[in-house]
Amino acid sequence: MRINVLLSSVRILSLCLFAALLARADESANLSKDQILSLVSELKWQTGTITLKDGLAKINLTDDFRFLGNNDARRVLHEVWNNPDQPDILGMIFPKDKGPIDQDNWAVLVSYEDSGYVKDDDAGKINYSDLLKKMQDAAKAADPERVKEGYPTLDLVGWAEPPRYNAETHKLYWAKELKIGGESEDELNYDIRILGRRGVLVLSALGGMDQLPEIDAAVPKILDMVDFQPGNTYAEFDPKIDKVAEYGLATLIAGGALAGAAKLGLFAVFFKWIFAAALALKKALIVVIVAIVAGVKKLWGNLTGRSKTPSNLLPPGSPPQ
Q1: Which pLDDT score, from 0 to 100, does residue 291 have?
Q2: Which one of 96, 207, 265, 275 has the minimum C-beta count within 10 Å?
């Protein structure tokens, strides 16, 4: 889901868990297990060089990765992972040996924010410890409302990888460790932002904390694979004709809690997180954090019919299993 960090109000309601969908397929109008498996088998995987948005940017995939374009990515997000349709998503990058319903899978959602030229002159001024504290306080302050609406609490534990910005390539990346309710295992949200002349490429790698070493090792490759094309690069900004974004790198980080959809078996419910005046903006920012509520092992149990989704992880109002 695309995020505009300057919106003064955003409300995203709960999404059904894919695991619950499979465990209760006979009670749902959604796809059955067999239909999902059939859909996954028909996905058109792409390799090599991928052109995004009519030449805006390119992905030069190495042999370690493969790509799903707009149509297939939408089908995975909407029909397989049971999230609202996202027509504007550019695609998804998967490791070559992992698919949408494989165990221990992870994926990188790719989208573009036509937000304008983001100045990076605050890069050396950001106190990331202070920024993290403000983000944590905002998440905690929103807990009562989340609980009232039937969702578990959400804690931003800390940086899994602190923010890093390369001033030469204009690429920013960081990772957050999240704890959802009483879950014993913390979860991971790994974000990449690539600055361009008129906007930002948004990449979000979604997985569990136990996958941090694997994803962390893949990030340098991903950073090298994706970039804007001539005519759209950061260096080609023309102040006479191009607009400037109303925020800098700090807001990209604080507002980048989610740039993508919920992940199969890992990202099941979007939560509201009100980010109040943390970056000296005149209006409060509503930032959406992805909530990770079930591991892929639980998903596999549902695929084989050996487990059920705990009732406390189902969306509000769901009937007992």
Answers
A1: 27
A2: 96
What is the gyration radius of the CA atoms in the chain, in angstroms?
A: 19
pLDDT 10s digits, 41-74: 999 999 999 999 999 999 999 999 999 999 999 9
Domains delineated in the chain: 18-313 (2.60.120.1690)
- Sequence-distant (≥ 6) Cβ neighbours of residue 304 within 8 angstroms: none
Around Cβ 20, how many Cβ atoms within 10 Å? 25
In this predicted structure, the answer to whether residue 242 has a pLDDT above a threshold of 50 is yes
**Tokens 């165990």, residue located:** 103
Q: What is the pLDDT of residue 61?
A: 98
How many H helices and E strands in the chain?
Answer: 8, 12
- Amino acid letter for position 204: S
Residue 159: closest CA among 126, 125, 128: 128
Model confidence at 83, in pLDDT bands (50, 70, 90)?
Answer: low
Two tokens, residue 226: 């994706």
254: number of Cβ within 10 Å: 23
